[in-house]
Amino acid sequence: MTSYCLASYGNWLFMVDCWYNLYLLNLFTHERIDLPPVESQIGTTKLERTLKDHKLYYLLNDYRGSSGFIKIFDFSGEVPQETFQCGVPGNSSSLDPIRNSWRIAGAQLVVTVTGDVLYVESWARPFTLLWSFRVYKVYSSGFFNKFEQVDSLGNEAILFDLGITVLANDDIVGFKRNSIYFKTTCHEKNTTQICLFNFETQEMEPLHKFHCSSQQQLARALWFLPSFKQT
């Protein structure tokens, strides 16, 4: 295998090849869009990304959660343009396991239904099934970039691995409002579990569990939410 999928949005897959070249691939038309290179520090940093409305959102974070930055590229024109960049505040509490048993398990950029950008941190306690999330709204104010902590998602739900929100009110079946959907993995049993985190009660609820045939399949298990249009 020369390429594999990092993330998906609608009918588009975000791909990387063995030379770390990034590109978009339409699953049905096979259209390919090559992306500009992104600086990489293999082994020390983690890259998360979200594609929505002709924009690509990058989050480059180190594995300890102590530093990172956000970039937004606009692909609506002929040439991709970087339209936004800001640093991500570090969190020193995740570096000291004695004083604070909670650890940052991951971070993700999330784009809401209305186009707002959220920075979401997932927190976990080692050797337990306890999870928590912190959500921040990212916005510019003059020459400064600010992070405002969010205490409610309203009538939306976050799909953490996809980096998007979906409407989730009483008229829509399938998603619970003010919730975060995410996955956990058990490498010993080759299983991945979809879970729901209620943002209001701060409680986690396990949903569906999937058994994978190999460690490779387990590592590359992703959400896929296709979009269909009637013609």
Automatic annotation (TrEMBL):
KIB1-4 beta-propeller domain boundaries: 3-42, 52-198
Domain of life of the source: Eukaryota
Name of the protein in question: KIB1-4 beta-propeller domain-containing protein
